[in-house]
Amino acid sequence: MPTEPLTEGAVAAGSQPRWLSDDEQRAWRAYISLAKMLMRQLDRDLQPFGLSTNDYEILVELTEAPGNRLRMTELADVTAQSRSRLSHQITRMEAKGLVRRVACDGDKRGTFAVITPRGLATLERVAPSHVESVRRNFIDHIGHDDLAVLTEAYEPVMARIRMTRGRD
């Protein structure tokens, strides 16, 4: 029977997994529950504006990019979406007039996502409400020192995942 090569971090046959301690499991489950609950709440708070958190994130990334545009592949990477999922998302956003696709000069296969004036106006209108939602549901419940601890804890994990994702 052929065996699959072990991926990094996989448990070799016959060896024991490194089970999570009670504290590790509690932290992991709290993080997972918080991430899911927070994103659902932020989505609910964006619904009256006709946006999802994915829409909002894409609009923000495009406004922060040079020329208010990003290659679709780069946008997929910065929003942690598959290229296929992002393509469908951009199609929905194009239908709303929030973004448009533009061919890349000199690269027939490359495409930029570009925020439209309507997308910019939408983001400007929604941003105050969204920031208030983030504050009300997250920031205001965490002390300043704890925010720094969270940032310091999450950044190396994100960097590690970005680094290994690039090898896929």
Helix/strand layout:
Layout: H1 22-46, H2 53-64, E1 69-71, H3 72-78, H4 83-95, E2 99-104, E3 107-115, H5 117-137, H6 144-165
Antiparallel strand pairs: 1-3, 2-3
Helix pairs in contact: 1-5, 3-4
Description of the structure:
The protein is built from six helices and three strands. The chain is mainly alpha-helical and 168 residues long. A three-stranded antiparallel beta sheet has the order 1-3-2. β2 (99-104) and β3 form a beta hairpin. α3 (72-78) crosses α4. It is globular and about 50 Å long. The mean pLDDT is 90.
Q: What distance lies between the first and last C-alpha atoms, to the nearest angstrom? A: 25 Å
CATH topology assignment of the domain at 50-126: Arc Repressor Mutant, subunit A
Molecular shape: globular
Q: Output the structural class.
A: mainly alpha
Strand count, sense and barrel status of the largest sheet are: 3 strands, antiparallel
What is the spatial order of strands in the main beta sheet? 1-3-2
Low-confidence segments, ≥5 residues, pLDDT <50? Answer: none
Average pLDDT score:
90
User: Helix share of residues?
Assistant: 55-70%
What Rg is obtained from the alpha carbons, in whole angstroms?
20 Å
Provide a count of the helices.
6
What is the correct CATH architecture of the domain at 50-126?
Orthogonal Bundle
Based on DSSP secondary structure assignment, what is the total number of beta strands? Answer: 3
Q: Mind telling me the CATH class of the domain at 50-126? A: Mainly Alpha
Instruction: Report the CATH superfamily of the domain at 50-126.
Output: Winged helix-like DNA-binding domain superfamily/Winged helix DNA-binding domain
**Beta fraction:** 5-15%
The H/E string reads: HHEHHEEHH
